[in-house]
Backbone:
């Protein structure tokens, strides 16, 4: 199993590569480096389905997701994607978690379009 540092480095590299692809049209030759990075990362890991994470309501009617309720590697993925976002000591806002999962699906679909458009 990967250490926390390994996970953090891997997910930071993944996030940077996904951001690099975000502004490129599938088939753009500038996507090659990001695709190599993402392919390498995927070879190192096992696929993990979206986790079922409970929403927790705290005083004031605020709904959060507690860090301890998010399994790895999703916790590192979420933290890397939401770096700089406002959060509470108790955890992240639930809507940030839901937005992350929604954006993740879009990013994975965009990544797949890039892979399909890559020259053989």
Residues:
């Amino acid at each position: 199993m990967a250490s926390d540092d390994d996970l953090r480095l891997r997910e930071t590299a993944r996030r940077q590569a996904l951001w690099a692809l975000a502004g490129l049209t599938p088939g753009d030759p500038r996507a090659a480096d990001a695709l190599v990075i993402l392919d390498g990362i995927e070879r190192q890991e096992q696929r993990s389905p979206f986790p079922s994470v409970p929403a927790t309501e705290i005083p004031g009617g605020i709904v959060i997701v507690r860090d301890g309720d998010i399994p790895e590697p999703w916790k590192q993925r979420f933290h890397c994607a939401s770096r700089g976002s406002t959060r509470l000591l108790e955890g992240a806002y639930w809507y940030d978690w839901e937005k992350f999962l929604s954006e993740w699906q879009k990013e994975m679909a965009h990544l797949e379009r890039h892979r399909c458009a890559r020259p053989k």
The chain has a mean pLDDT of 93. The chain has four helices and three strands.
